Amino acid sequence: MPTTKYTKKLPKHHSVPVVRGKFDYWVPIEDIREDEANSDIYNYDSVTDIAHSIAKDGLEHCPMVWKNSTDLVSGHSRYRAFLSKGYTHLPVVEYEDERPSSEYERIKRLHVSNMYREIKFPDRYRGIKRARDAYLNETGRLIGDDEMNEILSDWRVKRGDWNIMEEMRQKYPKFYNQVLSGEMGVRDAYKQATQKKAKMRMAKDMSNLLNKADVNYLVSSICQTIEGVKTLDTGIIGLGNTFNPLSIADQNFYSNVIHTTACSYMAHKLNSFTDFADDWRITDNQNIYHDVWSGEDDTGIEIKTHQCGMGETPRWTPKRFKEGYHLLIATSKPNNRGEIESIFIGFGKLTESCVKMINGGKVEIIPEKLWELHQKGEFEVWKGKMSMDNDGKISFKHALTTK
How confident is the model at residue 1 (pLDDT cuts 50, 70, 90)? Predict the structure, then answer.
């Protein structure tokens, strides 16, 4: 590296932050070259935060370049942070070795240089794939099992997870890409990709199912059930004293109570209609595709509940989504008297396009999709209101349960 151009002495007109760490040279920012393999492996999500930190507190650890070059060994995100702030020079540490011509060897070095980072699975997978491809390109032969296992070990990826990703790349590209984007974990994605899709029974038309009075009875049933379990005094301390064992029950408990009440109400109500069979019942786990269903009508309903504040957007997150009729209920959390003060209820036929993948192998129902169906009259709002603001954000307004 010519010291006439790259020295510790900055030119008269320059813009740099405070540098607290040790370095060998200042290099004009336009002379720095990134390693394309690094960009293919690692993401740059943290550049904005790094830039803010450098501007505020200075640069602690300086980027590293190969000997006698301006090619980065490590510090690509810090380099991009300098670019974003308009700094003119980058302080660098010169590595002891010159840049290898072998990409396979450079990837090894890139990985070692990034060991301090929190490397997520997508980056690890991309690093292994790039190393494997480089080996093939440079040697003309496939990498052996022992060498592959060594690479997997270096990048701390299990052989089983690597095999799963390779299978999904070939058979399930949608789920493969969701892992690479960080939307899903590799095991959760594979489970979703390979599990047998549940098919809801939808032979019977369920539109305009309940009238206003029916819905009010449903709300009343939910409220009365919650108030009842909230005030149960069944714990006996002794000498005639009792305590309330349900007063500290968690949110899941009340969601389960609401869910069971809604299932029981819907089964009972459908059995009372002359247009439907009288065999509607709650699932007994023999029919895992429906919460409430009828064999004779060949139709079922999924019921999902969520507790949230009036100003919050409900999050309905089925563990196993099934296309078909869904009854969605959002309620406020019970107050100290065991009362649910507000509620939202919607009903409609949902498809796979209405959900998105989230962590834990679950899916989440997308509010915007519910709005689209609502605008077409395919998602009925039985209690409460839906609206869209000027920014395209969907709002759910609960109705008071006392009305």
Answer: very low
The number of residues making up the chain comes to 403
* Alpha-carbon gap, residue 299 to 311, rounded angstroms: 34
**Distance of alpha carbon 328 from alpha carbon 315, whole angstroms:** 10
Residues 103-124, mean pLDDT to the nearest whole number: 74
Give me the sheet containing 25-28, strands edge to edge: 25-28, 89-94, 64-65, 72-74
Gap between the Cα atoms of 197 and 41, Å rounded: 33
Contacts of 335 (CB under 8 A, 6+ apart): 341
Q: Kindly state the helix (H) or strand (E) to which residue 91 belongs, with its residue range.
A: strand 89-94
The two structure tokens encoding residue 22: 């040790």
Closest CA to 309 of 328, 283, 335, 282: 335
Question: Can you tell me the distance from the alpha carbon of 341 to that of 283, in angstroms, rounded to the nearest whole number?
Answer: 29
Classified as helix, coil or strand, 145 is: helix
> Directed axis angle between helix 121-139 and helix 173-180, to 10°?
110
Give the number of other CB atoms < 10 A from CB of residue 312: 14
Average pLDDT, the chain: 85
Enumerate the H helices of 329-366 as residue ranges. none
CA distances to 230, 320, 351, 379, 392 from 198, in Å: 35, 8, 12, 21, 32
- Contact between 343 and 319 under an 8 Å Cβ cutoff? The reply is no
Give the global pTM.
Answer: 0.59
Query: How many angstroms separate the CA atoms of 359 and 111, rounded?
Result: 27
CA pair distance 148, 154, nearest whole angstrom: 10
Instruction: Please give the distance of CA 265 from its chain centroid, rounded to a whole number.
Output: 33
Q: What DSSP string describes 204-246? A: S--TT---HHHHHHHHHHHHHHHHHHHT---EEEETTEEE-TT
pLDDT in tens, 249-302: 666 788 888 999 999 999 999 999 999 999 999 987 666 678 999 999 999 999
Distance between CA atoms of 162 and 128, rounded to whole angstroms? 9
- Residue 299: other Cβ atoms inside 10 A: 23
Summarised one tens digit per residue, pLDDT across range 121-148 is 898 898 888 888 888 888 888 888 888 9
3-state secondary structure of 283: coil
- Report percent pLDDT > 70 for the chain: 89
